[in-house]
Automatic annotation (TrEMBL):
Taxonomic source organism: Nostoc linckia FACHB-391
Protein name: N-(5'-phosphoribosyl)anthranilate isomerase
Pfam family, one: PRAI
Pathway(s) per entry: Amino-acid biosynthesis; L-tryptophan biosynthesis; L-tryptophan from chorismate: step 3/5
EC number in record: 5.3.1.24
Length: 214
């Protein structure tokens, strides 16, 4: 299972989190976010990472040229779209960045919201389902209604996000079967400052799940 820790701001934390077991790290490229990082900060954070760690830039309503420049300048391996981007925008981004993973994040409020996910599966590599918040794009600490997702089975891999922590990850994964999980505020001391003890507890919880399923 992929495990993405999002909202990384400190280079030393990025290498520590990768060594604990994360398969992907997320960097917020939205200037209004408290977890925002610049291109030079991303470069510093990814410089010492092993080659097998995915590095994902998170964008919201940015233009294709703007995203492409940051991806190239930062050396990112993926883009996560967290704004109002439509399928056609995802198609245009794919043309501009053919070798970069495209993740479409959807903030799910109802089953109707969930139905829109099918519109994107032809144009992106991966979906990410997050909890809905009227003002914030992510990192809110709010959980999704997992029962809504019990039958969710899109034609592409998907991440479960939204208020996940070491304490509730076992319960979440007993109800839904995502390809990966995405955590941010659930492993933080403050926005952008990850708590490595919480990250370690997360991976211990995931290990226990694997043992119980084998």
């Amino acid at each position: 299972m992929r495990v993405k820790i999002c909202g990384i701001t400190q280079p030393q934390q990025s290498t520590a989190i990768a060594s604990l077991g994360a398969t992907a790290l997320g960097f917020i490229c939205v200037p209004t976010s408290p977890r925002y990082v610049t291109t030079s900060q991303i470069r510093a954070a990814v410089a010492e990472l092993p080659a097998n760690i995915d590095t994902i830039g998170v964008f919201a309503n940015a233009s294709v040229p703007e995203i492409s420049k940051i991806v190239v300048d930062s050396g990112l391996t993926g883009v996560q779209l967290h704004g109002d981007e439509l399928p056609d925008f995802c198609y245009q981004l794919r043309q501009a960045l053919p070798n970069v993973e495209i993740i479409r994040a959807l903030r799910i409020r109802s089953l109707d919201h969930l139905d829109t996910a099918a519109n994107y599966t032809k144009y992106v590599d991966t979906l990410l389902l997050d909890a809905y918040h009227p003002e914030q794009l992510g990192g809110t600490g709010k959980t999704l209604d997992w029962t809504m997702l019990e039958q969710f089975s899109p034609n592409c891999p998907w991440f479960l996000a939204g208020g996940l922590t070491a304490d509730n990850i076992v319960e979440a994964l007993s109800q839904v079967n995502p390809s990966g999980v995405d955590l941010s505020s659930g492993v933080e001391r403050a926005p952008g400052d990850k708590d490595l003890d919480k990250v370690a507890l997360l991976f211990q919880s995931l290990k226990n799940i694997d043992l119980s399923r084998s």
